[in-house]
Amino acid sequence: MKKLFPIFLLPIFVFIACGEEEEDNLAECNDLISTLNSAQETWVAVEADYILTGEYVDGARGLCDAYFDGIIVLIEADCPNDLGDYDGWTVAEVEAEKENECDM
Fold first, then answer.
1. How many domains does the chain have?
2. Which domain holds residue 28?
3. Predicted TM-score (pTM) above 0.85
């Protein structure tokens, strides 16, 4: 029985160790998603202002870049998230879209 005891503990140890890693990844993904949401809200406001005035605000290029960079970071981190129109896109595809959309 003494020899079996460590064998029963091994799966528990592995499960706990993996669980902590998943929690760290989840926390990192949550931070990345929060950053992306903030960048998206800002970029949507910039686009709405552009529709009304016909001109981009100062720093619009940087705000656009921040939004698309947030999408790229989420893809690279392999975070489970619904990226809407960009769901399933590769980093290269998002970078190409970024160059197109942020060319102002």
1. 1
2. 4-101
3. no
Residue 22 DSSP one-character state: H
Q: What is the pLDDT along the chain (104 residues), one digit of tens a residue?
A: 445 444 444 444 444 444 555 666 889 999 999 999 999 999 999 999 999 999 999 999 999 999 999 999 999 999 887 888 899 999 999 999 999 999 98
How close are the terminal C-alpha atoms of the chain, in Å? 72
Residue 42 buriedness (CB in 10 A; 0-12 / 13-18 / 19+): middle
Sequence-separated contacts (24+) of 62-69 with Cβ below 8 Å: 63/39, 64/98, 64/101, 64/102, 64/104, 65/98, 65/102, 66/39, 66/42, 67/36, 67/39, 67/40, 67/42, 67/43, 68/94, 68/95, 68/97, 68/98, 68/101, 68/102, 69/39, 69/98
Q: Other CB atoms closer than 10 Å to residue 68's CB: what's the count?
A: 21
